[in-house]
Amino acid sequence: MSDVQGFIDENLGRFRSELYDFLRIPSISAKSEHDDDTRAAAEWFREKLTSAGLDAEIIETPGHPIVVGEWRGAGPDAPTVLIYGHYDVQPPEPLSLWDSPPFEATERDGRIYARGSADDKGQLYMHVKALEAHLATGSSLPINIVMIAEGEEEIGSPNLVPFVVEYSRRLACDVILISDTGMYAEGLPSVGFSLRGLAYFEIHVHGAVSDLHSGEYGGAVANPGNVLSRLVASLHAPDGSVAIDGFYDEVLDWDEATRAQIASLPHSDQDFASTLSVGELTGEQGYGTLERLWIRPTCDVCGILCGYTGEGAKTVLPNHAMAKVSFRLVPDQNPGRIKDLLEAHIETLDLRGVTIEVQELHGGRPWRASVEGPAFEAASEALEEAFGTRPVPMGGGGSIPIVVEFEEKLDATALLVGFSLPGCNLHAPNEWLPIDNFEKGIGALALLYEKLARVG
Amino acid sequence: MSDVQGFIDENLGRFRSELYDFLRIPSISAKSEHDDDTRAAAEWFREKLTSAGLDAEIIETPGHPIVVGEWRGAGPDAPTVLIYGHYDVQPPEPLSLWDSPPFEATERDGRIYARGSADDKGQLYMHVKALEAHLATGSSLPINIVMIAEGEEEIGSPNLVPFVVEYSRRLACDVILISDTGMYAEGLPSVGFSLRGLAYFEIHVHGAVSDLHSGEYGGAVANPGNVLSRLVASLHAPDGSVAIDGFYDEVLDWDEATRAQIASLPHSDQDFASTLSVGELTGEQGYGTLERLWIRPTCDVCGILCGYTGEGAKTVLPNHAMAKVSFRLVPDQNPGRIKDLLEAHIETLDLRGVTIEVQELHGGRPWRASVEGPAFEAASEALEEAFGTRPVPMGGGGSIPIVVEFEEKLDATALLVGFSLPGCNLHAPNEWLPIDNFEKGIGALALLYEKLARVG
Prior knowledge:
Two copies of one chain form a homodimer. With about 450 residues, chain A is α+β, with helices and mostly antiparallel strands.
């Protein structure tokens, strides 16, 4: 292993430089005008898998393609690890809030600033480099590798499950290893035990045939902006819980041990609020901040657009209003059922004079893991060796909808080992990844591959 | 008078062509990038006043200038009529909904389609042509005229009251004549008896230092979009009334005679709803549609912007949300007091984790007139002669905030005689004015000037 770590140490500068090429490609899967860029990112990534020593190809889907890399040198009796990540990124808007260009990686304060640095190009590329270190040094890597990098994670992975089903024999594995999460704190590595699911909707309220003069018509004609505000407001009760009938029916109570473990983690509400520049934290009554983030479901409006939003006072009664509303889900909630509940909820509102349209844009089930077992232990050991600190089990507030699907379709265990840090601006301006985590993390992953020999 | 009407009839084609030149100038007062256009409209209008036979000049203000035209040929003992209108227009957005270019007047189905055709360039220009008809034919016009055209009506006339105060001697008059309203129905002319006031606010909700990942932070951090929705929703009670404490304290009950007169007007809720393509009308319980529009106050959101509103699903927890909220006011409500009440109302909400900023963009007091008296009667006679139908007294849902100020500062009676029609898309795409009303209206105004001799 010393050769492997030596190779990594010698090549860190090149690894970063290559990552910056990857980050330069604006592979924004949500925007069709970036389809060429998204494909370019897939092509780039396939070439890097090949030069790292894997057999790699691009497999088409009805949407953005999937890159598959394989190394079967450990032989048919060795365990197989499937490494999953994504080469697509979130839109960078609002651009004016970036301190450096989102698609030009910039090093500042020991961090790599760029869209995708943390989510997920940076972390995905760490695996490529850890594999390269093994294969270039002839380390007798004791596991087989299948790596898949998709280009639609940020738009809900619509084509990944069909792909996994179609290629299930080729993707057969013992462990699904994913680096798309973070560490609990700087210097404190973590292994994931939960992810929230997601149900994301776009809600349209339609009124009159055109925008109207708010004086000539105001008071007698339903205002879609007012109706939409009422609709969004109705989604919460005053205690911060979600006020949709039946929303909590399938929420599992977590065991006291998990809640106790969460409570034992170092955490300060004041520091957390201060980092975000908010006066105080707020959320569902009866739960602490980490519980609100990891084991409780939410409802957040992600965007609203209605009427005139330019400079000055336009006295218009808008004829249309739109909100993007996302629910984060916890076991055993299901996005399909949330859509039914949401639509039933909307039916209970006063909708005279308007029509409502609900589009489901995105859905994914929540995930929950056992913190025992050989894969979790292998990850804990590898992280401790690389970072010098015993990792903590960590919940995840975000969603990687494919995790549940992978486990079910491939009958394997998911293992989440991530290297971003709290406050790294995922999905926001000035996304960053610590250079130190990028470098130590490559070593940790290289170690982890060796330790995963035991999961066979 | 037959010479005057003859002159009008002979020159109608030219009058329209000149109006189309006026409409071609995008004098959008709300948008600073159109400041040059707004000034160009003032220059154009001044020249037309001069060629009509008035002494005309442009008077600067801290904002857009005011054009003043005068004709004092009736002598010091004759009454003076101040004609007021505005040469600025609303923004044309959304442009995609216009069937013909907003600043290229297009005749279709007997209508002039263009931004400003009805509000107010078309109606303002009718006065210029009615005056030209008198002055060109040497008709011995029995009243003196002061005409003022401002360029800031659509942004709340911030500089008009100081102007009226500064020039009050020059503007001294017996009647303030305004054509910025409409007729009750096609072929049914009207004289205005009320206008609603306006209080227009931009409300900002600020949250964390930047947009956040809705998974990593959702549930523990206040979402400005959710808070704003709750704020806007809280402005109405379930019965459709405005739920701000004290909002109705200064609302005068209208007399039974006025309510009976309103009830006697031809009106069909079904037709009204059908024109707008809405399933049904809705509003404050206990009032009919015309009452809701004319004699009851309202609260309408005019625009909302928050978070990500582009294509697809961006899972962002926004750090900012903005709403433009307008209140239409009725006697004796006052916009300044509404701001205080709104701010006090907002203080009662759950605002943990956010800060709120309320900007007042626009304010104007409501107006109410006596339907008796010589000016009202002169207008009724002139309209009946020109249109062949006895006019009806009509309330106004919109606001011309300067009306109350004019009456108070100049100690004169306001008279509202307008020629647009319901459904003419004021402040909306495809604004129009009937060609027939433009033409008959010029004759009606020419007659009205003669009949106003009696108000002295």
